[in-house]
Specification:
Layout (H helix, E strand, L loop, with lengths): L9 E3 L9 E3 L2 H10 L7 E5 L5 E8 L6 E9 L8 E4 L4 H13 L4 E6 L10 H15 L6 E2 L3 E2 H6 L6 E5 L9 H5 L6 E5 L7 H9 L3 E4 L8 H16 L4
Parallel strand pairs: 1-3, 6-7, 6-11, 7-8, 7-9, 10-11, 10-12
Antiparallel strand pairs: 2-5, 3-4, 4-5
Helix pairs in contact: 2-3, 2-7
């Protein structure tokens, strides 16, 4: 998106977007614009829906419970949906929010909580995870909001994993050599990344992972990383070497 519009508030909506369309926002978004940001008739915002790109809009009504807008012009075309899958063992509270937000910022297409033997929490609120993904997209000018898939056990995940997709696993016990050459060899292939829980995968889980032909273990260096740090480090390495940063 052109940085000339970076100062405008950005909101995700589900409605179709086109020139001249009139949209009335839901209550929470209306309150955010009219009461929190104090936007009024004539002020501009940016809307996106993950399908039609980003649109510059003008407020035509500033009622706090039902702000209305008119779409003026598309300011950025829709970006393609990322094929990068990211699975992680859920963490507690703020660190869970953090890994969702960073996955969005790092260009992930699908986010999936994976329950392992050492997972810290087993009951998630899918609506909260999706809300975090949307908020991160709004803040970072991401036009394709990742899908937050339902939580799944590691066993079920591996039972149904498509063999044509490589599954990169951050493995602290892997050889500590640089993952650069390993990743370069995966260029052009569909990719998934799996980050385990604090303390790592249980021995039986790790043994099964390493026995699978589509699993590629990589080291993230000689230091022990927290799970949320490992996720950002691995996504950065993948995107820089074989992803969309080139």
């Amino acid at each position: 998106m052109p940085r000339t519009h970076a100062a405008l508030p950005r909101l995700f909506v589900t409605a179709d977007l086109a020139v001249g369309t009139q949209i009335t926002l839901e209550k929470d978004q209306s309150l955010y614009l009219a009461a929190v940001l104090r936007k009024s008739v004539g002020d501009e915002v940016v809307l996106f829906n993950g399908r039609d790109g980003a649109w510059r809009c003008v407020l035509t009504s500033d009622a706090k419970k039902s702000v209305a807008l008119e779409l003026l012009e598309q300011i950025a075309p829709q970006t393609p949906v990322s094929d990068l899958w990211y699975g992680f063992a859920p963490l507690k509270s703020e660190r869970l929010d953090y890994v969702i937000q960073k996955a969005v910022e790092m260009g992930v297409g699908t986010i999936q909580p994976v329950i392992t033997q050492r997972t810290q929490i087993n009951r998630l609120k899918p609506e909260r995870l999706q809300a975090n993904a949307i908020e991160a997209a709004e803040q970072c000018e991401v036009l394709s909001v990742p899908v937050v898939a339902p939580e799944i056990t590691l066993e079920r995940l591996l039972d149904g994993w498509p063999a044509e997709r490589v599954l990169i696993v951050a493995d602290e016990a892997a050889a500590s050599s640089s993952p650069v050459e390993t990743l370069r060899g995966l260029a052009g292939k569909p990719i998934g990344l799996l980050i385990g829980p604090e303390g790592g995968f249980a021995e039986a889980e790790r043994a099964r992972l390493l026995a699978l032909p589509y699993v590629v273990p990589i080291s993230l260096g000689p230091r022990i990383l927290r799970a949320d740090t490992a996720a950002v480090a691995a996504l950065a390495v993948i995107q820089a070497i074989i992803g969309d940063w080139r």
